[in-house]
Amino acid sequence: MEAQQTQSVQQGIKKEGFHITVTQMCITAVFMALTCVATMVVQIPIPLGYAHLGDSVILICAFFFGPVVGALAGGIGSAMADILTGFAVWAVPTLIIKTIMPIIACAIFGNMKSKFDRCKVISVKGIVGAVVTLLFMTLGYVVFGAIIAGSFAAGLASAPGLLLKSIVNMVVYLFVAILPTAFAYSYGCGIPYSILLHILFFMYYTYIILIHG
Fold this sequence. Notes:
Distance between the termini: 59 Å
Strand content: 5-15%
Structural class: mainly alpha
Low-confidence stretches: 8-16, 182-189
Order of helices and strands: HEEHEEHHHHHH
Helix content: over 70%
Largest sheet: 2 strands, antiparallel
Number of strands: 4
Number of helices: 8
Shape: globular
Radius of gyration: 18 Å
């Protein structure tokens, strides 16, 4: 009986079409924390909020692990960062925007159903998927910013900072997403571990450069 229960857990939890394995749960938890930390470690003030590196982690997570893991990690991890850094008023808009972002990305990447169907990082779909996703993020925050501030002009004022943040996150996404596969094959470690290692190293050196010069 216990063996059957263990096997059912290992195969995944499947209810009403929702399917997530134990491995995916663990990866989701790790990337939820990474998204939160990446959003909190480097914060550059812009109108109505701050710029950060959390979006690059969301794109990486969506590309390698699909829409379910990406949406859970991105939405909850980013909302947690807003709450913990004094921007609780943005928690709900962030939860909505960052949950939808990986779904849009994966729809273009081609890995909505299987991560093995995804495109290459450097490809039309790989780049367009990231660009469209980041543009959606920018539009979402402009709209919610206008609602929160009660002024469309105030929401629009955040657009340049959001677009600049998108460019930085795009570069980080491309840089980090390209390296893990080669690293994993070269050193015999799994791609998830390689992704984690590269993100941690990148965040550490970014923090050192920006904070300590």
